[in-house]
Specification:
Elements lengths: L1 H113 L16 E3 L20 E3 L22 H5 L15 H6 L22 H72 L1
Antiparallel strand pairs: 1-2
Length: 299
């Protein structure tokens, strides 16, 4: 009976040890499964954070490129506006020069028509080779050429005799235009009674020849800013503001990325510490179980 009891006790001890090993294996397997899931979750979270940071970086790069393209477009528009303004100014100067040349030609014709006329209605202009003009009574009321640009009224003479200098006109035309404006190739227009200069002189910033020297000068006027330039400068200011906002957003995204990296590192350190603590607790548990077994044996 004692032997049977001892055998049953040994069998019970063996079964208990088997059950304990089985429970330990199941506990270890469960812990490994939990650890694997935790690692997977952490890796997915890190991957998601990395993807979000990459997307934010790409978005910032796209916004930067867009801002650069807008600034380039604004600069191109500004250059085009400046070139257009220069072209318009050049065309106006050419038109003004053409008007001045036509005005000078008209004055010459007026002087020729006001000069003494002979029986044959010719006027001596040259000395060596005479160029005579036929005076047409009906035509321009101002006394000019009725057909401007047409030289059919002018006849070349083959006589090559030497005559004296031409006689001065009996009634010289009254000066009604500024000679400086004509010399500057600008359109001369009087502003009105009591004006210190004409429009052409004001543009060229010279004193009008029709105004006496003791007349007080006008004060300088400030130039108005052109709407094209103001619009371009306003567009450039808006683009600079957008660039500053984009730089601020980029800095914030970089700060967020650094925070995420530090968070991942901290999680890795915590995980490492937990692993070390689990290993130490496992060793302590093994030691405790070994001490219990030894005490049981001693008892």
């Amino acid at each position: 009976e004692e032997a049977e009891a001892a055998a049953e006790a040994r069998l019970a001890e063996i079964r208990r040890k088997k059950e304990e090993k089985k429970r330990e294996a199941e506990e270890k397997k469960r812990k490994e499964e939990l650890e694997r899931r935790r690692k997977e979750e952490e890796s997915r979270a890190a991957e998601a954070a990395k993807k979000a940071a990459e997307e934010a970086r790409k978005e910032n790069e796209n916004e930067k490129k867009k801002a650069e393209e807008e600034s380039k477009a604004a600069e191109a528009a500004k250059r085009a506006a400046e070139e257009n303004r220069k072209k318009i100014a050049m065309e106006r100067r050419m038109e003004t020069a053409a008007l001045v040349r036509a005005q000078i030609e008209r004055k010459k014709k007026e002087q020729l028509l006001n000069s003494p006329v002979s029986e044959t209605s010719t006027v001596v202009i040259g000395k060596k080779r005479k160029r005579v003009a036929v005076v047409v009574p009906s035509g321009d009321p101002e006394g000019g050429d009725p057909n401007p640009g047409n030289d059919d009224d002018y006849i070349e003479s083959d006589t090559d005799d030497d005559e004296g200098p031409e006689e001065p006109p009996t009634s010289p035309p009254k000066q009604s235009r500024c000679s400086r404006c004509i010399l500057k190739a600008l359109k001369c227009e009087m502003v009105g009674p009591g004006s210190a200069s004409c429009k052409g002189c004001r543009k060229s910033k010279v004193r009008c020849s029709l105004v006496p020297d003791d007349y007080p000068r006008r004060s300088k006027r400030t130039k108005m800013e052109s709407p094209v330039a103001s619009t371009s400068s306003q567009t450039i200011d808006d683009l600079r503001t957008n660039v500053r906002d984009l730089n601020t957003r980029i800095n914030l995204q970089e700060e967020m990325l650094r925070y995420l990296i530090l968070r991942v590192r901290k999680l890795e350190e915590e995980k490492k510490e937990e692993d070390e603590q689990e290993e130490e607790s496992e060793e302590d548990r093994v030691k405790r179980t070994g001490d219990r077994k030894g005490k049981g044996r001693k008892e």
